[in-house]
Specification:
With about 900 residues, the chain is α+β, with helices and mostly antiparallel strands. The chain has 5 domains: about 170 residues, 2-Layer Sandwich (Endonuclease, Chain A); about 160 residues, Endonuclease, Chain A (2-Layer Sandwich), CATH 3.30.870; about 70 residues; about 300 residues, no CATH class; about 120 residues, no CATH class. Helix content is about 35%, strand content about 15%. It has an 8-stranded mixed β-sheet. It has a 7-stranded antiparallel β-sheet with strand order 15-16-19-18-17-20-21, with no helix packed on it. A 6-stranded mixed β-sheet has the order 3-2-1-4-5-6. The longest helix is centred in the last third of the chain and has 22 residues. It starts with 13 loop residues before the first helix and ends in a 10-residue tail after the last helix. The N terminus is likely disordered.
Length: about 900
């Protein structure tokens, strides 16, 4: 038995202690992992390679997370299995549940073991318990030595050569184990060989000077029969039992009560106040004035405490430390929390809530690794069979056996996520992220971070096309997304004293604000706010870069204040010049996919409030630049259709995403609707004067006469309405000249006005309902005539929303219908008559939440701006009620 590695009153700060710029290695084991958090926030804190980063997560939890990943979000996996290694683990068939985090920096290693998963809540905000061990101390060296032995065995169970190679590399970075470490009792326990409860019993029998006076228990999950608690009572024979609970605790209260009564000891039931979910797992034992605390990942369940791996046990790691009796008791009370006594009879109100795991696929795909020629080698259990194919969600390739017997695709695949399917398209396996062996090896030895000139999602070969050049220019000169910025290897200049003074809760905000404020691209935005179109303006530099030309001379005449005129004049001048040798833009279909996904991702991140830390009006500057880019791309597509990777449908889809992200429309609030009036006014004042005529042209292209016009109008209508409401649309003669050049026929300004106004007033309720049902995931939607009240213009029937106050889709639906019908009075009802509501502009929202319940009203009058703010925060109507 060893003393704790740190004072019991010292607060662990996992992010501050683990994710540091001086790190050369960071290994984590966790039940669940937030990939977005790790890629965008934690990984940049670790600095540049050489760096050995590995995350081992529960296989089924990881599979479920990857299955939920939207297709448009696959680009967020860029760094996974390139800069760092991710593997799913499930030895023995039960949960992989340990929460351990080891960082090596210089000649020192730091190990944290506790209850928190690799997520924001687990590391920084949840009610968790961690124990910190540092090399160079007896307890720290003993714990790290045990962890090294344990992780070697875990890697052996995984049987993955890439993982094994990185473990060998980790061994070279870890400080050597001091002589005599094996003679020090390790505070670290695991259940690879012996159940944790049995080790706890043995340790207390050897070190407790007397019988156990108190047994203290706290965990969020028990087993369905409270059997683990019964085992602890039998093993330790305490005189008093203290059980700490919250209303969220999953336990069969009646069965727990029966076990406590049958045991016969004095029992205290205590409720945490405030009643908030507590994720810490603690078992305490007190004998006289001494105490022992068992913490870590193990819940009060059979699989966690009384079984071993391979014998229906989870993989768990715990820490056993010695304290005073009072320190053990204090550990059970989280900060800003008290424990209030409850009666034993109240246990009957608790119930055990089983959380069935998703069914495991018939095949476990362990890993997939790309070869130099683009083919992908896979490892699976069982081994790949004849007729199986590897699917990257876009294309698929049959699997063959190479000379060494390994399963390899017959041809190249380029998707980041892959899975096994059979010849009938039935899914056989989980998904995994494809390894890039070259990048992984480079991360261990040299810089593997992509150049600032190349955004995540593109490869070097894409720069051979003008489209790739455009995207690289935008990334190099503008901050299109927060997560894709140049990152310092430091922690942003925040000292330890400053972090302590301000607290950990705002750590992320401080780090992001400081790094974004120093972004060198911020200075570019000041040059966008200009009415002129001379060669020094970034947008013109972009257009010149697209044509692979030297910077143009300053514009004159009508082109001086019109982007469209500038484009048309440049095109005319190019026709008069000797035509250069044509360069094909269409390099491959995958260039189109990567470019489209990148532009979609950028469009979806413009409402990120952190962009304001780069420059308060950064989204407006980004939008103005994108308008110029799309104006050029549409003209190029019309004049040389075989040279552009993006199709007309791609351009229309991307344009509506960008315009909707800026102006709003339908169920999207848009950046202009989320900022306050002062910022909104300043942005509109500083946007270039030529922008409304260009926006009008791009909007007309999305609703022009042609195939599927009704569907295209319904899709574009809410966004165009929002753009009109913000005065972003104003057709001019230059708009007509530009569109005539694209359409190949004379188009008048009057025709443009007619088409755009027709799109705004277009009514097709069935199409609108079908599109809204698909967008919001509803079961059904009907739009009926108004019920007769003068203040109500529309009546909606909804299927699929059970609670109108707590479903975040309802505020989005209300905003969408008010914009679609340009009305202020709406009545909404559940088609099963279980609830209904009504709202009118300037009045409170009235809701009948259920049959037999009283009508409730919002605490303030409704407005479009209020709904936009609520939707931007992914709020619910209950937020507007007292």
């Amino acid at each position: 038995m060893t003393e704790p590695a740190a004072s019991s009153v010292e607060r662990s700060r996992p992010v501050h202690e683990l994710f540091i710029g001086a790190a050369s290695a960071m290994w984590a084991t966790t039940y669940s992992v937030d990939l977005s958090l790790f890629n965008e926030f934690l990984l940049p804190r670790l600095g540049d390679p050489p760096l050995n980063v590995v995350v081992l997560a529960d296989h089924r939890r990881l599979t479920a997370g990857l299955d939920r990943l939207p297709a448009d979000a696959v680009d967020t996996l860029t760094a996974v299995n390139r800069r760092w290694l991710l593997r799913g683990v499930r030895p023995g068939g039960q949960a992989f549940h340990p929460k351990t985090y080891l960082t090596v920096a210089g000649t020192r290693a730091t190990l944290l073991v506790g209850s928190g998963n690799l997520s924001m809540t687990g590391l920084d905000r949840g009610k968790e318990v961690f124990t910190t061990f540092r090399s160079g101390t007896p307890a720290g060296d003993a714990a790290i030595g045990t962890w090294r032995t344990w992780i070697h065995r875990i890697v052996g169970l995984v049987d993955d050569t890439t993982l094994a190679q990185r473990l060998l590399d980790l061994n070279t970075r870890l400080p050597p184990q001091p002589a005599g470490t094996s003679q020090t009792d390790s505070p670290l326990l695991h259940n690879l060989d012996t159940p944790i409860a049995a080790q706890f019993k043995t340790a207390l029998a050897a070190h407790a000077p007397s019988d156990i006076d108190e047994l203290l228990l706290s965990a969020p999950y028990y087993d369905d029969d409270a059997e683990a608690v019964g085992q602890l009572l039998t093993d330790l024979r305490p005189r008093r039992v203290r059980v700490f609970l919250t209303k969220a605790t999953s336990v069969n209260g009646n069965r727990l009560k029966e076990r406590l009564i049958a045991y016969g000891a004095a029992t205290d039931v205590l409720m945490y106040q405030p009643d908030e979910f507590v994720h810490a797992k603690l078992i305490g034992a007190v004998a006289g004035d001494q105490g022992w605390l068992l913490s870590g990942s193990a819940n009060l369940s059979r699989a966690a405490l009384t079984r071993t791996v391979g014998h229906s046990g989870n993989v768990e790691v715990a820490v056993l430390t010695r304290h005073t009796a009072d320190e053990v008791r204090a550990a059970f009370i989280p900060p800003d929390t008290i424990a209030v006594a409850a009666s034993l009879d109240q246990l009957g109100s608790w119930s055990f809530r089983s959380e069935p795991e998703p069914a495991a696929p018939s095949v476990r795909l362990i890993s997939a690794s790309a070869n130099g020629d683009g083919r992908v080698e896979v490892a699976s259990e069982p081994m790949a069979q004849p007729g199986w194919l590897l699917d990257d969600l876009t294309h698929r390739q049959p699997l063959t056996r190479d000379t060494s017997g390994r399963a390899v695709t017959a041809g190249p695949l380029h998707g980041r996520l892959v899975r096994l399917v059979d010849a009938n398209d039935s899914v056989l396996s989980n998904q995994v992220v494809v390894d890039d062996p070259t990048a992984l090896a480079a991360a261990l030895t040299a810089t593997a971070r992509p150049s600032v000139d190349l955004p995540d999602g593109l490869v070097t070969g894409d720069l051979a096309s003008p489209l790739g050049t455009m995207l690289a220019w935008l990334h190099r000169n503008m901050v299109m997304e927060v997560s894709d910025r140049p990152t310092s290897t430091s922690v942003g200049g925040v000292t330890a004293d400053e972090e302590t003074e301000q607290g950990d809760d705002d750590l992320w905000v401080r780090l992001e604000r400081e790094q974004l404020g120093r972004d060198p691209r911020a200075s570019r935005y000041g040059r966008i706010w200009s009415d002129s179109l001379d060669a020094s303006e970034p947008i013109i530099e972009l257009l010149d870069a697209l044509r692979a030309r030297t910077p143009s001379e300053p514009a004159s005449g009508r082109a001086g204040h019109s982007l469209l005129a500038r484009l048309l004049d440049d095109a005319a001048n190019a026709d008069e010049e000797e035509a250069p040798t044509p360069r094909r833009w269409r390099l491959a279909a995958r260039v189109r996919v990567r470019a489209r996904n990148l532009l979609r991702r950028w469009a979806d991140t413009q409402a990120d409030p952190r962009l304001a830390w780069v420059e308060p009006l950064a989204p407006a500057g980004n939008f103005a630049t994108i308008v110029g880019a799309f104006a050029e791309l549409n003209l190029a597509s019309a004049q040389t259709p075989d040279r552009l990777e993006l199709t007309e449908q791609d351009l229309d889809d991307l344009w509506l995403r960008w315009l909707g992200g800026f102006a709003g429309g339908g169920t999207r609030p848009g950046w202009l609707n989320q900022v306050d009036q002062e910022v909104r006014t300043k942005a509109k004042q500083r946007l270039p004067r030529w922008l409304p005529e260009a926006v009008a042209a791009l909007c007309w292209l999305t609703v022009q006469p042609g195939p599927r016009r009704r569907e295209r109008v319904v899709e574009a209508q809410p966004v165009i309405i929002a753009a009109f409401d913000h005065n972003l649309v104003d057709p001019t003669d230059e708009t007509a000249r530009y569109l005539s050049a694209i359409a190949g026929r004379a188009i008048t300004r009057a025709e443009i006005d007619e088409q755009l106004l027709g799109a705004i007033t277009f009514i097709d309720d069935d199409l609108w309902c079908a599109r809204t049902v698909a967008e919001l995931g509803l079961d059904g939607l009907t739009l009926d005539a108004p019920p007769g009240a003068a203040a109500i213009q529309v009546r909606l029937g909804v299927q699929g929303i059970a609670d109108p106050l707590l479903d975040p889709r309802l505020p989005r639906l209300l905003a969408a219908i008010r914009r679609y019908r340009r009305c202020h009075g709406v009545a909404v009802y559940a088609t099963d008559s279980s609830w209904r509501l009504s709202l009118t502009e300037g009045e409170t929202i009235a809701v009948l939440p259920g049959l037999g319940q009283a009508v409730v009203e919002s605490s303030e009058p409704t407005s479009d701006h209020l709904l936009d703010q609520l939707n931007a925060a992914v709020g619910v109507l209950a937020d507007l009620f007292a």
